[in-house]
Amino acid sequence: MAVTDAPRIVTSRLDYDDSHTLERYLATGGYEGLRKALTMTPEAVSHEVDAVSLLGRGGAGFPAGRKWSMLRKAPTSYLVVNGDESEPATFKDHLLVERDPHQLVEGIVIAAYALQVTTVFLYIRGEFALGLERATAAVNDAYGHGALGRDIFGSGFSLDVVVHPGAGAYICGEETALLESLEGKRGFPRIKPPYFPAAIGLYGEPTVVNNVETLSNLPWILVHGSEAFTALGEGRSTGTRLFALAGHVQRPGVYEVEMVKTTFRDLIYAPVLGGGIPGGRELKAFIPGGASAPWFGPDQVDLPLGQDEVGNAGSMLGSGSVVVMDDATCSVRAAWRITRFFWRESCGQCTPCREGSGWLEKILRRVEDGQGRESDLELLMDISDNLAPGVSWPPQQTTICVLGSSIPSSIASAIRMFRDEFLLHIKDGACPFGSHGGGSHG
Amino acid sequence: MTEQHLHPEVMARAREIVALYPHPRSALIPLCHLAQEQDGWLRPEAMAEIAELVGVTAAEVLGTATFYDMLKTEEVGTYVVAVCTNIACMLRGAYELLDHAESTLGTRTGSTTADGVFTLEDAECLADCGRAPCLQVNHRFFGDVTAESFDRLVAELRAGSLDDTVPPHGTLVRIRRDGGLRVDESSLAAERTAAATAMAERAAAAGTDAKAGG
Description:
The complex is a heterodimer of chains A (442) and B (214).
Chain A: H1 22-27, H2 32-39, H3 42-51, H4 64-69, E1 78-83, H5 92-99, H6 101-115, E2 119-124, H7 129-145, E3 160-165, H8 175-182, E4 207-211, H9 212-216, H10 218-224, H11 226-230, E5 233-234, E6 237-238, E7 240-247, E8 253-258, H12 264-269, E9 283-287, H13 307-312, E10 321-326, H14 331-345, H15 351-368, H16 375-387, H17 402-406, H18 408-428
Parallel strand pairs in A: 1-2, 1-4, 2-3, 7-10
Antiparallel strand pairs in A: 5-6, 7-8, 9-10
Helix pairs in contact in A: 2-6, 2-10, 3-6, 5-7, 14-15, 14-18, 15-16, 16-18
Chain B: H1 8-18, H2 28-39, H3 44-54, H4 58-65, E1 79-84, H5 87-90, H6 94-105, E2 118-123, E3 135-137, E4 140-142, H7 147-159, H8 185-206, H9 208-211
Helix pairs in contact in B: 1-2, 2-3, 3-4, 6-7
């Protein structure tokens, strides 16, 4: 086991019950990173962030420094914070917004200073009522403390932050859909190019969209320096990362671990982390990076938690969620539920996704219910091929955004790994894992 | 002039929210939340007034609102109980919990109890998977839910003993923004110039160190 003694970069205050208050934040070194940043030039701050290879923690893993460097120079530009966390089994930003909102606010001001933007929109998932209240209180307190508003800490730099509630739509985590939503519209992803809002973003102006966890790293980086950060992890995957561990483990939860030095085995089995699988059961499969990611089996459990390492193995670290399934899990049912999610959350703009997701859900449902046919396997793969030609990894796209091309991941994984299980459902006319609750809810 | 549907104090808050954004339409979703706080759901009369406030048609407000799960264009109960059934919760018994919820509340998923108190929903991932199976009541989290704890929760909601933690449906954020309304553009421009001058002075005073980020 290699659970390292890496420092806790973004979760250092979570042992305190009052971790969300300004008092606790100031008593634990809060706003020191911002004070340091304000003594530097904006370019130097950007350089510092570029130097640490801070890969975006939202899902795509794009380096934050490079994203910043692409911001088109214009009289008006924006920073938008993506706090619309809704990827299934991802619950780390929820924790950061609720439990350490000042750390996020400080990260926001540092980023805004580096980018020289004067208005920030903090878009938080609407379902996070407590998170929205904590973020609003933190923003209020930050204004009172002089960390927001006019002439921050006497530096001459001024900034406004507006906390903006979402209203329940997974697709708004896609950054161009988020911008549409922030403009008061349906959350329809925008056609690319332009690929990055850094060219044309909110209200058509250059915009940087950063994830909550990404920005929450900035105060520590400013205080401790880029070398301390790059000393952690390996290759491009530097620092620590939050992993949201869910499903069949003794201790589901959010864990901050050093990248690459920690493996999936550590995360799932280490007593201080997941604590293993309950009930003496065995690992059947795990999803390494959100519902959009292809599944892994027990033979891949020793892979390191690194972006490139997981990418080269045919999946992705994605949003940092790991779903563990034990050997009593029905793979058809798991694939069905994930597909049902995509069907419900498809925005409906593109035909392959809007129609395909529903067909796939219905076919998987009938296989699970024992009404499937042998030709259904081929049919599932054929529809998948219309969503992501070749059903390869990374997927090809036939839709405006990657939601559509993500749908086949779980289906193709389940069929590849557990084909016999599908056939058994069809042959026996029933789920071999027995009846489940929820028969009437499909 | 016809009578306003949104109460004067709600209208005043609505105008404050509109003023936070460079383009009024950005306030559309926050104003829908505000209207739900007043009415519990999004009434057509409210949508018409929101349309006026943000400069679009009522149809555009409706068209936007229907995209979002949290904005209810039909009446819902005082308590909207959303049971997560996505993968992480399903693996830990969410559908069994949903079956139990239906029998306790005596209503089907997607409908409201006859007394108008509870609406039961089957939700997508609510991002509290460390405490799966989880649910929300009016967007307040309850985790590690069992059949027994569900029944207790329902009894407590009926008795009103959770009124402090779970406000009626529609009330999302009970903390009001009280700092830093928008800085006007001319003072921003002046501050930017002053900041650039100050920065140049600091850089000159610190020599090359400042450039290296020290």
